[in-house]
Inverse folding.
């Protein structure tokens, strides 16, 4: 069975790429502002909040990269492969982030014993 090609006009792909670029730029400015504001507020939860912000930023970068790949998919099979790869990497990333967050939360307790 022959897989049908995704017939997406070049203009639409270009528009999608520009939209992704604009959204990524806006999120970049948000993360920059959030990082600056966190650095001015001392507190016990600040380090965990910073780490959560870093993980969120990494996830957003992955999502933008994923969107760029999908824009260039030429058939349904390629789009499904891209989606599958993205979901797999997100699950791995989430597990890594949880281990790092748990490790960060546990370390202060280890030093007090």
């Amino acid at each position: 069975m022959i897989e049908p090609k995704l017939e997406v006009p070049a203009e639409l792909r270009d528009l999608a790429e520009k939209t992704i670029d604009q959204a990524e730029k806006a999120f970049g400015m948000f993360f920059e502002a959030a990082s600056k504001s966190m650095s001015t507020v001392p507190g016990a939860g600040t380090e965990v909040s910073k780490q959560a912000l870093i993980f969120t930023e990494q996830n957003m970068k992955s999502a933008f990269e994923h969107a760029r790949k999908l824009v260039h998919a030429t058939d349904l099979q390629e789009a499904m492969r891209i989606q599958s790869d993205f979901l797999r990497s997100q699950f791995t990333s989430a597990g890594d982030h949880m281990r790092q967050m748990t490790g960060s939360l546990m370390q202060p307790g280890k030093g007090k014993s």
Summary: The chain has three helices and no strands. The chain has a mean pLDDT of 85. Residues 46-93 form one domain.
